[in-house]
Write a structure and sequence with these properties.
Distance between the termini: 19 Å
Number of domains: 3
Radius of gyration: 32 Å
Mean pLDDT: 85
Helix content: 25-40%
């Protein structure tokens, strides 16, 4: 893969992660740690979220307060959106009512039991294997909390020319709140909230309605402010701001009877409680340690479990992460690896015996550094899959191998028949030598592994016999060789057409 392709792929991967998991999905120009988004976070992000446990008690939908109904409106709503929002909210009520009816007869989950709800997970976990002498692990818990900021906390990056454009003398209808619009260190902000109603059920009024007059196309047609009005629109919209939370804790390797609460910093989330849970599994001379990050907030009513309710958004953890750091992390073996349940599993364990895993995630995935001194959770896992190449030691160089198996050389546009047969036999001879080397290597394995290795080698020898007989058939039967040529020609043309399409 070229460096250009690698850069493009990395950017694509980053864009997916920012869009699905966050932070960094909006364009305010702020650091990811303090991002601002113009949606409810539960409407913006789809993974990495830890919810409060859902209450299974039957809280009637009719008990919803007017404030709850108001916060269920879509942010940045304008009067023309109101009818659509009413339809969306009615659908939410129907879905919630159905959910309540199906859960009212279910017994309450035990108080100390950690929920395994895959739709609204309350926890994530990470299991690592460590040496028995290790008594504690350095663990970092991190996540983002979102809250509705006051106006002075809301700012957006804009160049100074863009800021100055709002004060252009050529604008007929002046910006109604120009005295409170400020610019500092590359960011634009308002000194106070706008007066009036932003819209929705009550309609636009005050400075919001005046701004609607200012931003009209005919008012800004002769000024560059028309290119920057979206900055102002975002600045006065209802938004959520992120607060990064990081807690570094020395966690003892011992079972916790119940989750240990972590004291949260900040005063925006008074109803939110979090904690961690530890479970250990001794095995031989090592210990498997399972660490969970848990949302311990008070149960949230099932009939208010909508992503448009403010309190639910405030009681959720976003971009949740667990990171374990230790010099004593050992390769992690799953139960299937330690106790394979069939012959295929045994063969796979044998073939990939040199590929080590150093952790497993629960409600998430796991990744680790090359020196496996750091293992952490991830919600957007990826792995570089390298191109498959045939390579043999000895006199068969890469160039000879490329000539023998090149699809063009095997097609109607390729080499003469005698040269094709010669190249294929050359490949087969070295494949035979490679199998002989595998037999020698297999003798070094334990009795159990040697048995599995012998079974794999027997299949390789069967393939070798097939290759020899097939090349012999190509050599003596002209019609078979012509069919072989046609098949490779079709593949070659398909590859070329695909390459040309990529270039165009």
């Amino acid at each position: 893969m070229s460096s250009r392709d690698q850069i493009a792929r990395d950017k694509f991967q980053e864009r997916i992660q920012k869009g699905m998991l966050g932070p960094g999905s909006d364009s305010w120009g702020l650091p990811d740690e303090e991002e601002i988004i113009s949606d409810y976070p539960l409407q913006r992000y789809f993974t990495g979220i830890l919810f409060p446990e859902k209450s299974l008690k039957d809280d009637k939908v009719g008990d919803l307060s007017q404030s709850d109904l108001d916060t269920a409106e879509v942010q940045n709503e304008t009067p023309e959106d109101e009818e659509a929002d009413e339809l969306l909210y009615e659908k939410d009520k129907i879905d919630i009512e159905a959910d309540v009816k199906t859960t009212t007869d279910i017994k309450e989950i035990e108080e100390n039991k950690i929920s395994q709800n895959n739709f609204f997970p309350t926890n994530i976990g990470l299991t690592v294997c460590v040496d028995n002498p290790v008594k504690e692990l350095d663990v970092e818990f991190s996540f983002g909390l979102y809250y509705e900021p006051n106006q002075k906390e809301i700012k957006i990056r804009i160049d100074e020319n863009g800021y100055q454009s709002f004060f252009d003398e050529r604008i007929p209808y002046k910006l109604p709140f120009n005295k409170i619009l400020r610019y500092e260190d590359g960011f634009m902000f308002l000194e106070r909230p706008l007066k009036g109603d932003r819209g929705g059920k009550k309609g636009r009024s005050g400075e919001f309605k005046q701004f609607d007059e200012f931003r009209k196309r005919e008012n800004l047609k002769d000024c560059s402010a028309k290119d920057y009005k979206s900055y102002l629109e975002k600045l006065i919209s209802r938004v959520w701001k992120r607060k990064q939370q990081v807690y570094k804790i020395e966690v003892p390797i011992e079972d916790t009877p119940k989750p240990i609460e972590i004291n949260l910093s900040g005063n925006h989330h008074s109803e939110l409680k979090i904690g961690y849970n530890v479970k250990t599994f001794p095995f031989n001379k090592s210990t498997y340690v399972k660490i969970q990050l848990v949302n311990l907030s008070q149960k949230h009513p099932a009939n208010r479990f909508s992503n448009k309710f403010e309190k639910l958004n405030q009681k959720c953890l976003f971009q949740s992460s667990i990171r374990v750091l230790s010099d004593s992390i050992l390769p992690y073996k799953t139960y299937e690896e330690m106790s394979p349940f069939d012959e295929e599993a045994e063969r796979l364990n044998f073939i990939y015996r040199n590929v080590k895993n150093y952790g497993v995630g629960h409600n998430c995935s796991a990744t680790w550094t090359e020196d496996h001194k750091e293992v952490k959770t991830t919600f957007v896992p990826y792995h570089d899959i390298q191109d498959v190449k045939n390579k043999f030691d000895g006199e068969l160089s890469d160039s000879v191998l490329a000539e023998a198996l090149d699809i063009r050389n095997l097609s109607n546009f390729g080499l003469p028949k005698n040269k094709v047969i010669e190249n294929l036999n050359f490949f087969i001879d070295h494949y035979s030598s490679w199998i002989a080397d595998q037999k020698k290597e297999n003798e070094k394995n334990s009795h159990k592994e040697r048995k599995i290795g012998t079974e794999i080698i027997s299949k390789q020898e069967y393939n070798l016999k097939r290759l020899k007989s097939n090349v012999e058939l190509l050599k003596r039967d002209e019609s078979v060789f012509k069919a072989f040529r046609v098949a490779n020609t079709a593949i070659f043309l398909m590859i070329k057409i695909s390459e040309n399409m990529k270039k165009n």
